[in-house]
Structures are given as structure tokens and as C-alpha cells.
Amino acid sequence: MFDTIRPGSGAISGCKHVETSARPKRQFLSIIAFTATVCVAASTADAQQRDEEPTGEPVTLTELFEFAEESAPDIQQARERLGLGDAAIEGAERFQPFNPEIEGEFGVGLDDVGLSRAEITLTQRLEIAGERGLRIDAARQQKEALQAELARARWDVHQQVHRLYRQGLVDTDEVEIERDVLDFTQALFEVAEQRFEAGEEPRTSVIVARAEVAQARQRLLQAQVRALRTRRDLGAVVGWTKQAAPQPTGEPEKAKPVPAKERLVEKAIAQDPQLAVLRARLEQARADLALEEREVWPAPLIGVGYERENLASTDVENKLRLVVGVPLPLWDRNQGEIAAAKTRTDILRQAIEDRKKVLGNLVVKQAASVQAAYGQTQIYQEEVLPALETQLDLLQEGFKLGELSLLDVMNARDRLLAVQRQYLAALDEYYAAVSELEALLGTAIWQANGDE
Asked: What is the pLDDT of residue 109?
């Protein structure tokens, strides 16, 4: 990023002690005290950097998606919940929900010794109104709703991985910028030290340059900590099990203008994962309602019975009976279950309509945010950064030749660094806005317009 003056054999690796005059001014003492404080902080930061920054395994976006599909906790939990749908289907497919019943009745005469009467009855309650088919349909709708939730979990993870991957690449660029700044500042310190020894630069320039090196080390450490935090967040989303957090590698997508808002709204309504779940739940509620309404139909009882009875001491009578029964739906007509199923259907239907209204507004608003962030990145890339980089190169060479002061070069460096940070912040804002829009669309943003 920076065209630096590389340190030679005398490159600094820490803070050096600087001799002061016998009667320093108060301002000069303040500079020395500030430098000592920053040097101590920089030494501590270097130690923390060595302890806190493990080397991560470089992974591409495709590899992260594949790993997340197998190991992401949210996807695994949603996949396990599919078993509830399979269990519901298995329970609905049984031939009858009622088991056959067998009853026995035995009597002993008071005047006779031994069994005087025996009766055995086998009965079965039957569903004859097609309840089994409706029950299977409701169970299948339940599984489809669970599959929609799995698809939503997959897309949520996909979107989070993509967002953190982009953020990780921006963090990497920030680390590289801060590292280049450190190299640049170290080079300035060496030049300032050489010019001081030659009597061409005051001692304060050396002290200020040393303090700037320490601050540059601190900024580098802060950037590395932010990058490591993003990598760990990424590892948590994908279910990373290795000790070192994954290191995103590759090139991020180039910033693009947002597609047409009307097309985005259409795609969002068609593919929004939350809408897909609501639609699947509505179909399940409708299937449940149809089943509850059919459950009002009576389930008749049929069976056979055998009866043996001693009428006298020598007479025995055997009987074979046919048992038929039909419940009368007078008091219990499944009123509560039907009302609850209707309410769930109404709630889900209204939730879908509300989601469509909110979704359209959210997509339009988020698309505007993407477009605004895109405009900011273009201004930085095309106008601001090239001019400042050229200016810094000229000022750096001018300081090396003794034509400019250290303060001029530092001011120019600070301006470029501020702009670089602002550009990365704008780029990060752009990627974050894209990720939020993708979360609403249920697809990559430019695929929503038919682009690859």
C-alpha cells in the first residue's frame, strides 16, 4: 500500500534511550515522558501479539460453505428436527389409530359349584370417513414445514458465512495497511536519526518519530485483534473444530450498483426464507383443520362375542353375537380443536400478508443503503486514494532528501491513513448492507437480477 523506505541493518526493533541536555525545556520533557509511556505500551502490545495471534488455516469461501453444510450447529439442529416429521408420518400411516379390545365376563351361580356363565367379546373401532389419509397429509405438511425451516437455517448460515468472510478480507486489508504504516514510520525514524546525527534534524524529530513507531505498533495490534475476533466468529458459525480460527482467503466481489428495486422485491416475495416457512406452516395448518373437521364423523364399533351359560344342572347354552355400535356426536363435536385450527390458519395467513408488506419496504430501504455505500466506495477508489498516495510518495522522498520536515510527512501520512481507514469502513459498510439485503432475498443479490 505504501512505497516505503526499507530499514537497513540499523532498523529499530524497539525503543532506544535518547540523551537529553542538562537543562531541557518543559515541553521537551513532556515529549520524552509521552514517548516512554508509548514505548512501554508498544512492548506490551508486541508480547500480546505474539501470544494472541495463532496462524489460521487459509480457507476459501467455497470451502467455508461446504464445511458449514456439514458442521454448522444451526444446520445440524434443523436437520435433526426433520426426524419429527418422519415420526409424524410413521405414526399417521398406521392402519387404525385404535387398538382392538377384548372383554371377558364370568359368573358363578350361588347354588351351584363351578362356572355357570362365561362371555368373551372382541371389538374394533373403525375410521370410515378418510381420516387416515388426512392424517398422513397433515404429517407430510409438517415435514415440509420442517424442511422449509432447514432451508431457512441453511440460508441464514450461508449469509452469515458470506458476511464474515467479506469482513475477514476487509480486516486482512486493514492489517496490511497498518503493517505498511509501521514499516513506513520505522523508515522515517531511521532517516530522522541519521539526519540528527548529521546535525540536520533536531532531537525532537527523533523522539516524535520513535513515538509514532510505537503508536503504529499499537494500531497494528488493534487491527490484528479485530481480524482475529472476526475469524473466531466465523469459526463459531461454521462449527470450526480446529484450534486456530479459519483465515479467509481469496478476493472479495467487486462493488456493484444495486439491481432494480422492483425486481428485488419480486424475488424477495418469491424466495424469502421466512415467507417460505410461513407458507409451509399455513399449508400444515390447513391440513390440520381438514383433519379436525373430519374427526367429527363417528367411528363405528364392530365386534364378535361368544357366550356360554349353564341354564340348569345339565343344560348348556352357547351363543355367538355380533356387536355393532355408533357414537352419537351430541356433546363433543371437536369444537375446541376445530376452533384452534381455524385460528392458527388465520394467524398464519395474516402473518404472510404482513411479511409481504414489511418485506417490500425492507428491500427498498436496504437496496438504497447498498447503492449509497457503493457510491462511497467508488469515490474513494477513483478520486481520493490515488491522489493521496501520489502526494505521500513525493513527501516521503522530499523528507529523505532534506527538503521537507518530519511534521509535513507525518501530517501527509496521517491524512492518507485516515482516508484508507475511511475507505475500508465504507467497504465494510457496503458488504454489510449487501449481506442484509441478501438475507431478505434468500439468494445472492445479483442473482436476483439474473446476473451471475
From this structure: 65
Domain-located, residue 60 = no
Taking the complete model, does pTM exceed 0.90, yes or no? Answer: no
Instruction: Inform me whether the pLDDT recorded for 57 exceeds 70.
Output: yes
* Angle (CA) 360 356 261, round 5°: 20
- Say if 242 falls within a structural domain: no
- Tell me the sheet residues that pair with 317: 309
- Note whether residue 288 is domain-resident: yes
Mean pLDDT estimate for the chain: 81
Percentages of the chain per state (helix, strand, coil), in multiples of 5: 65, 10, 25
CATH number of the CATH domain containing 357: 1.20.1600.10
User: pLDDT tens digits for 9-37?
Assistant: 333 333 443 333 333 333 433 433 344 34
Q: What Cα–Cα distance (Å) separates residue 212 from each residue in 42, 215, 414?
A: 11, 5, 11
What span, in angstroms and rounded, lies between the C-alpha atoms of 431 and 163?
7
Contacts 24+ apart (CB under 8 A), 27-35: 28/203, 28/204, 31/204, 31/207, 31/208, 31/211, 32/207, 34/211, 35/207, 35/210, 35/211, 35/214
What is the distance between the alpha carbons of residues 384 and 364, in angstroms, rounded to a whole number?
29
Gap between the Cα atoms of 82 and 88, Å rounded = 10
Give residue 393's pLDDT band: very low, low, confident or very high (50, 70, 90). low
Q: Round to whole Å and give the CA distance between 41 and 438.
A: 42
Domain count, the chain: 1
Give the ranges where 239-334 is alpha helix by DSSP (H): 261-271, 273-294
How long, in residues, is the chain?
452
End-to-end distance of the chain based on CA atoms, in angstroms?
A: 31
Find the mean pLDDT for residues 239-259.
Answer: 86
Enclosing H/E stretch for 320: strand 316-325
Mean pLDDT, residues 227-235 taken together = 93
CB 361, CB 367: distance < 8 Å: no
Instruction: Tell me the C-alpha distance between 374 and 369, whole Å.
Output: 8
Mean pLDDT of 169-183: 89
Gap between the Cα atoms of 164 and 162, Å rounded: 6
φ, ψ for residue 320, nearest 5 deg: -120, 125
Domain with 285 in it: 253-296+334-452
Residue 220 bridge partners (DSSP): none
Say if 410 falls within a structural domain.
yes
pLDDT recorded at residue 43: 45
Q: What is the mean pLDDT of residues 294-302?
A: 90
* pLDDT tier, 392 (very low <50, low <70, confident <90, very high otherwise): low
Amino acid (one-letter) located at 354? D
